[in-house]
Amino acid sequence: MQIEPRANVSVIRAAFAPVSAVLVTMAICSILIVWAGAPVLEAWASMVKGAVGSRFALTETLTRSIPLMFTGLAIAVAFKSKFYNIGAEGQLYCGALAVTYFGTGMITLPPMLMVPFLMLVGAVAGGLILIVPVLLKTHLKVDEVVTTLLLNFVILLFVSFLIEGPWKDPMAMGWPQAASIIDEGVIPAMLAKGRLHYGFVFAVIAAILVWAFMRFTVWGYEIKAVGLNASAAAFSGISINTTIIRTAMISGGLAGLAGVSEVAGLKGYLTLDLSPGFGYTGIAVAMLAQLHPLAIIPAALFLSGIYVGSDSMSRAVNIPTYIADVIVGMSVLAILVSVMLSKYKIKWGK
Amino acid sequence: MMDLLEIILSTGFWAATIRIVSPLIFGTLGELICERAGVLNLGIEGIMTIGAMAGWMWVYQGGDLWGGVIFAATVGGIFGFLHAIFTVHLGLSQHVTGIGITLFGSSLSYFVYRMLLPSATTPPKIVPFQTYKIPYLSDLPVVGEAVFSQTPLTYLALLCVPLVWYMLQRTPIGLAVRMAGENPVAVEAQGINVLAVRTGAVVVGSALMAIGGAFITMSAFDAFFFGMINGRGWICVALVIFASWRPGKAFLGAMLFAGLEAFQVRAQQITGASIIPYQFYLMLPYILSIVAMVFMARKAKYPHALLVPFRRGERV
Questions:
Q1: CA A37, CA B287: separation in Å to the nearest integer?
Q2: Which of A15, A40, B172, B202: CA 20 to 30 A from A253?
Q3: What is the distance between the alpha carbons of residues A113 and A184, in angstroms, rounded to a whole number?
Q4: Residue B313 belongs to some domain of the structure
């Protein structure tokens, strides 16, 4: 077996990669559905219906895509510079912690200022927690994958400590949750009915801003250069360490915004089940988007639809909802292969 | 203070340490074998989950315990093979592949568990491995109860340490594995297939990881819970770095780790939860892993070809 790079990769071939990855994933998951003894077509139809089949379903899918866009962007920026930040889950909770700290009555500003202020502190908190892993990487060469992963567990336990202890809302009838965000700090709803809030608009704007940042600014260029060839970048005068630290701050900040949107936009208060793994699903979002900031939007919408749709699939044909997580995990693997096949060709035999 | 000293002197503490160290030994040795061959296997967390589920399910469906261990190892090996196809044969990113295997492996475990046991609210139980007192040796003071009165899977874990050391350091296969991780071009020049060596190492390593997972559901506990691996796989990855990729040091590192874990459980009972909230005790293993990595990272002698895919005929 021989692997050779293709001379030129057409746009169509590049765009086809995520599509084929999704098709392969769905084909393999169909085997699981058959094994579960459910009719395949009916199962997928119920998933589509549950994701986009009604006004309610559609708003739910849009709502669920908000944190996925933020974490997907966080991962995409980091992976672009080959800084493997797997800690978006923890950074999300750091953002949520900051929002809870500042947004539950400590500071009161008019809504036009309060929401941006909360987004700012959430982003700063998400970035700050990444300081430890990134400095360990740049100065002591400690692998960031393991440190960011391990920090996720630490942060989650810290959140658990706060909402069961000092931050526990006495009005919550014994449930471990923090106090509610004050009215001025709540991200307003977009529609009269449903849970969709303006966080969706913010997420789309964030995607556009990140795209413009990566495309048109020197810092964005440096991030890409360090990711493509670190030694060449260093040779041309780019400071690798500075670039990686900067990348980490942006990445952590974006993940922190996911926590802001979930607390201030959706739930209204901090709980331990704020995120069912948005930080990890963000990896799949970023990979499906091939790390392109604008492609994060459709990728997040797609995976959000899978999650929302899997609930009704589970009800309709009695398949465990974990099928959504299986699809997410498998799509990460499938996209790796399909992107590679779009760039290389495999020659069999000697 | 005397109370804390008493903990360390008690046999129960050492018995618990040996019990806690067993899955860590399997996981750490498994990861070590993969990395020695030049492949970072971040699928470990998912592969341990699969092992925990597969082994348990085998027994729950009526199989015997050792059959469950073999089944878990086989399934783990298959996922290792998948990892190897991606990272060794296709040369794809080892980071992303590993995370993908973990996401896919854990979600598939939960899916299969829920599918086979749709309405289980309280986790059903199996009869796990029982302690087997090794004749004569278990009569020794302290070590008799701490080391020689454990379950057979623990003995297997303890046996694996010298076995893996011997295989890696003293056999031609081990030499090929180590060279594949240091200088694959030289291995190829010797007429040995680097891709085959690496694939084998990842499959065997992943099988060990899966047994580590199976230990948790078949020896430490008797049921399968969601999220029960709880970062143990990541801790093993950190331990490999802490051990500078050496099986003996990996064992010592895992022992230190398990000892602290056993210690904190007992210290928590003495000092009482009122002073320090329990969450901070639970944080310790993760923080310690990070600290351990920081201490060792600078002088770590990592395999030179770690993370570098090998393509025949390509200059490095």
A1: 45
A2: A15
A3: 9
A4: no
Residues A342 and A9 sit within 8 Å (Cβ to Cβ): yes
The answer to whether residue B314 is domain-embedded is no
Q: Say if B4 falls within a structural domain.
A: no
ipTM of the complex: 0.91
| Total domains in the fold of chain B | 1
Chain B, nearest residue to A158 by Cα: B279
* Residue contact A158–B104, C-beta within 8 A: no
Q: Rounded to an integer, what distance in angstroms lies between the CA atom of residue A67 and that of residue A281?
A: 10
In which domain, by residue range, is B190 found?
15-120+132-297
Supply φ then ψ for residue A4, to 5 degrees.
Answer: -125, 140
CA of A332, closest CA in chain B: separation in Å?
Answer: 5
Radius of gyration of chain B (CA): 20
CATH label of the domain that carries residue B175: 1.10.3470
- β-pair type (A344-347, B132-133): unpaired
What is the rounded distance in angstroms from the CA atom of residue B28 to the CA atom of residue A100? 39
List the pLDDT tens digit at each of the 316 positions of chain B.
Answer: 567 777 777 888 899 999 999 999 999 999 999 999 999 999 999 999 999 999 999 999 999 999 999 999 999 999 999 999 999 999 999 999 999 999 999 999 999 999 998 877 788 999 999 988 888 888 887 778 788 889 999 999 999 999 999 999 999 999 999 999 999 999 988 899 999 999 999 999 999 999 999 999 999 999 998 889 999 999 999 999 889 899 999 999 999 989 988 888 887 777 655 578 888 888 988 998 899 888 877 777 788 888 888 877 665 4
- C-alpha A259: how far from chain center: 11
**Looking at the complex, does the CB of residue A145 fall below 8 Å from at least one CB of chain B?**
yes
Best interface-test mutation with B: which of A82, A136, A147, A290 has the largest number of B CBs within 10 A? A147
- Give the model confidence (pLDDT) of A9-30 as tens digits: 777 877 888 899 999 999 999 9
User: For residues A194, A195, A201 and A202, what is the CA-based torsion angle, rounded to 10 degrees?
Assistant: 170
**A315 — contact with chain B (CB < 8 Å)?**
no
Strand-pairing partners, residue A346, are A3
Q: What is chain A's alpha carbon radius of gyration, rounded to the nearest angstrom?
A: 21
**So where are chain A's domains?**
1-31+320-350, 61-296
Report the gap between the CA of A115 and the closest CA in chain B (Å).
31
- Write out residues 199-238 of B within 8 Å (CB-CB) of A: 230-231, 234-235, 237-238
Min Cα distance A320 → chain B (Å) is 6
Q: Is residue B177 part of a domain?
A: yes
Contacts of B89 in chain A (CB under 8 A): 1
